[in-house]
Amino acid sequence: MTKNRFLASLSDCAQILSTGGDWPGSVRAALASVGKATGVSRVWVFQLIHRADDHVVQDQIFEYAPDSRWSQLQQNRFRLFRSTFECSEYRDLVAGRIAGQPNAFRTQDLPECGLRDDMFSQGILAMATAPIMVGGTWWGTLGLDDCERAVDWSEDDIAFLQTMAGLIAGSIHLERQSTLARQFAVMEQYRGAGLWELDLTTRRLWCSDTLFTMLGYPPPYAQMTFRRLLRHVREEDRGTALNAIRDCLDGASTGFRMDVMAHKRDGDILWVELITDVTSHASGEGMPLRLAGLVLEAGDRKAREQELNRAALTDPLTGLPNRRAFRATLERVLHERQDRGAMLMLDIDYFKRVNDTLGHAAGDDVLRAIGRLLRASLKDGDQVARLGGEEFALYLPLSERDARRKAELLRRAVEDMSLLLTDLAGNVVPTSLTISIGMAQVRPGQSGPMMVKDLLTRSDRALYTAKGAGRNQVIVDDGPPTGNELDAKWIQSSSRQTDDFGA
Predict the structure, then answer these.
(1) Best label site of 18, 55, 257, 487, fewest CB within 10 Å?
(2) Radius of gyration over alpha carbons of the chain, in Å?
(3) Which domains does the chain have, with CATH numbers?
(4) Exactly one of 63, 297, 390, 408 is catalytic; which is it?
């Protein structure tokens, strides 16, 4: 082995590994050059797959063996193989590789140990290795095996091997950069996908052109800092995003994913999804060195989600809120103690007759008509819903007297309606309707879910009483603040109690 052969091989390998393109092919060509320069039986690269306290898992990914007798690449024993540290010599060998140190020996010089036995079982008389360090971390190993000579490795041999390991490490870095560039190129083709990366050591921020464009800046925009980027997150969401970033910096999290509202440079608002990961750590310390993220326009998705949410909370026939939405809204409205307010529970009298005689399509028209009437009656603070079937509910932030007046006005309005419904035979049938209403007033000392449940229960019982008392009337629950017994009284229809409602 001569220095001239080494220099020529290094020159060839530097050119081979720096051209890019087919990285596996380039490494194989470089190993062939090393094999010819050294004359050894086998040149190989093991990649580290996993490292634990008591073992390592490696995979033989490249090999040059001019004589097929010495080839091991296709042997199962070197595919994702596990090596334990039971042998102290092998444990020290791995520790040296982790530290970036080369190693060379003649097998006959090893003490009696598992490593010596393993070398002889493979027919290896001499071995030299150099760790491939990528980003300061042991990525894998470049090795020379001689199965015909017990080579006494020289300093030039080790220096050559270390230099080659460095060239391979450089090619890995170039391949990673090339892969990232291809990934970025693919992402850049999709509208609404921006990329960024923050070097936590230098505080330098890189942003893709699409991210600049998304935020309304001409790419590239040299004055973009991470702090300035965060200012584009809506203030209400910024604290949540900052807490998630701090968790990444403190090591409590490796990344996060969240939807936030952001604003462009011109003030326009857009929904975006933030996907952020810690992409690099300091060797041995576990401290993050880099954060990287993807910013995806989420406006269309949020619109679909909001539409689905609206659909889940809306009665599709009448367009009114459904029971679930009604309860949630009231619990929010009545979160604090309220001194006044009333619940009206409304039910269409003899609705089943409409469905049975005119058909369900006519019944649907009736429900829509009642829904329109209730919606038109709403004032500030009123809440309405179709609870199901022919039953509706109305919350009024009114005193008992005013709520009674509103209930009676609604009852009369329905009684005065004349609907033209079409029956199953296509005939137009004039139809009159009436409704029964149960009413319950807010009780002192309640709030939120307890108040809503109490109002719904009491107004429903009052409605049941109204139906049993002949329908087409308003019944008010005047039960005591405590106890389970319902003490209800009904208000007769307007022909009997006109003075109560100013008629």
Answers:
(1) 487
(2) 40
(3) 3-179 (3.30.450.40), 190-303 (3.30.450.20), 315-501 (3.30.70.270)
(4) 390
The residue assigned the tokens 């890189």 is 206
Q: Is the peptide bond before 449 cis (omega within 30 degrees of 0)?
A: no
- pLDDT at position 499, please? 34
Pull the structure tokens for residue 122: 């493979």
Nearest C-alpha neighbor of 161 from the set 100, 71, 73? 100
In this structure, are strands 435-441 and 342-348 parallel, antiparallel, or unpaired? Answer: antiparallel
Which residue matches tokens 């609206």?
310
* pLDDT at res. 95: 94
**Neighbouring C-alpha atoms within 13 Å toward the C-beta of 141:** 26
Name the nearest CA neighbour of 153 among 191, 105, 196, 199. Answer: 105
Virtual CA dihedral for 324, 329, 334, 340, nearest 10 degrees? Answer: -100
Residues of the chain with pLDDT under 50: 1, 481-503
The predicted pLDDT at position 321 comes to 94
Among 190, 228, 230, 231, smallest CA distance to 209 is for 190
How much is the pLDDT for 283?
A: 58
pLDDT at 105: 94
Look at residues 50, 56, 49 and name the one whose alpha carbon lies nearest to residue 93: 56
Which pLDDT score is estimated for 286?
Answer: 67
Token duo for residue 300: 């269309």
